[in-house]
Amino acid sequence: MVVKVEVFTSPSCPYCPMAIELVEEVKKEMSEDLEVTKIDISIDQEKAREYGLMAVPAIALNGVVKFVGAPSKEELVEAIKEEK
Question: What are the UniProt keywords, alphabetically (predicted)?
């Protein structure tokens, strides 16, 4: 099963590049299983409102916010495996 990963970021966020890098790294390892979308909340505020996000970076898996802040690689991989 493909897991839909949405990464919510903001250009002014100092932690967002780290979250994007982490998701990209995990995608390389699990590429056939992940569909990654990066969402800049300064451009797409509607999606952030739908999810009730008040902070970035945030990572949603299959439409459910799982992390606010950048998780460790192990935490992200484990959460993805649970979604399959």
Answer: Electron transport, Transport
β-strand pairing of 3-9 with 34-40: parallel
- Tell me how far apart the alpha carbons of residues 14 and 69 are, in angstroms, rounded to a whole number: 11
**CA-to-CA distance for 54 and 56, rounded, in angstroms?**
7
**Pairing of the two strands 58-61 and 64-68:** antiparallel
Query: Average pLDDT over the chain, rounded to whole?
Result: 95
- pLDDT for res 79: 97
pLDDT number for residue 31? 78
Q: Which residues pair with 5 in a beta bridge?
A: 36, 61
What φ, ψ does residue 82 adopt, rounded to 5°? -65, -25
**CATH annotation of 3-83:** 3.40.30.10
Query: Which two tokens mark 23?
Result: 């998701």
Structure tokens at 78: 């484990």
Give the C-alpha separation, 51 to 54, whole Å: 9
